[in-house]
Amino acid sequence: MRAADIRRELGHPVVDADGHLLEFVPYVRDLLGDEAGGAVVDRFDLIVGSAGLRRGLGVDDRRKLGLARTGWWGVPARNTLDRATAMLPRLLHSRLDELGIDVAVLYPTLGLTVMALEDPDLRRGVARACNRYYAEAYGPYRDRLLTVGVIPTFDPDEAIAELDFATDELGLRAFLFGGLVLRPAPGHDGDPAARWVDGLGLDSAHDYDPLWQRCVELGVSPTFHSTGIGFGSRVSPGNYVANHIGNFAAGSEAVCRSLLFGGAMRRFPQLRFAFLEGGAGWASNLFADVIGHFEKRNAEALAHYDPAHLDRDELARLLHEHGDEAFTSRADRLAEGLDFLSDPDEDRATIDEWDQSGFCSVDDIVEVFTRQCFFGCEADDPMNALAFDTRINPRGTQLQAMFASDIGHWDVPDVTEVLPEAWELVEDGLLDREQFRAFTFENAVRLFSATNPDFFAGTVVEAAAAR
Predict the structure, then answer these.
(1) Which of 4, 339, 341, 387 is most buried, by the most CB atoms less than 10 A from its CB?
(2) Domains of the chain (ranges plus CATH)?
(3) What is the pTM of this model?
(4) pLDDT for 237-247, tens place per residue?
């Protein structure tokens, strides 16, 4: 079935929760010049031409500089119409019916670089220029195209400043926050190969609660498009595909886990958080794993493993009764290894590793995962069905997965095939029609409208979203 035919059959709107636009670089460059001046523009040009700079580096040089191979040949080329569609707002607006999409929430491409720029003048300048571009270039098409501003998060003050400007001055409603900040390890400033990952929650370098509070006040749902490339096992200097596989799941999981254990979600129950482009498989796994760990390692359950409760006399008796000669001949040395992974001198002030999370029960965990968390899923990923599988997810729940086109990038060779790919979940019996409705419409509405009831005001889905 064609996308337009599927849309007519559905009887409800389709909201693309994570499409991508391709910025028209000359336009952004001129805005950056207005905001930050020529010296910053010159540094911006190095970003645009970064592929050529990397190409001259060997594997050893890339390792030394901490450069994992990242995206190349990442946008449409043979399909010139789709390239232009992602770049020109009027053309995309005119093709939405052909794509079977009523409203598209559009995330950046060039703007994604803001999240990793360590130069503060360049980072803030590019963020401001991109946000002006999204507001100006796409403003006339807000009935169906909603652009997402970019918010760098190297520290909460800069994030709040840009968030205030983008909402108050530009009128943007949705925002992409830098979810992971790669910070230099202590004593290794300037060494890009020695960095630790700050997920804005647990063990963060800053207190990000003022930022989340500002989101509450402004009615903003934080969304994250975090990459796993550049740390952990995704650091190949020469193979982008090896780095890319699973990278958005890894990045999203890292941010989500940091916010969970840091307690941000429990402290700000009004907020909704979205983790995009990584699918739902990692989310179902993390959901079950957090519950499993809580059940075995909450403060009360830890008593089962407290070394103080070990009956050493009984252990010695059992050793003599059931141990072979090789064991009994060494019975006098039994105490030598008993403290391994069972140290009685562990600091008891630190053993409750759930104290910051705010979780006091499994019910609390289920509440957060099923009400506050949303997961962006690319249309061609069959694992999207896991989010809706009540046989697998704890407590028979469903996670709030959202349809995402990812138009504009290499994994969408033809934008007209995105909705049909998602529809295969219904054709293959993996989702029913009500679940597909939640996937392609309702969950995206819940994400944004829970914090801002007027988020879809002025769009073609305003009435349906309100219902």
Answers:
(1) 387
(2) 3-293+356-466 (3.20.20.140), 300-350 (no CATH)
(3) 0.95
(4) 999 999 999 99
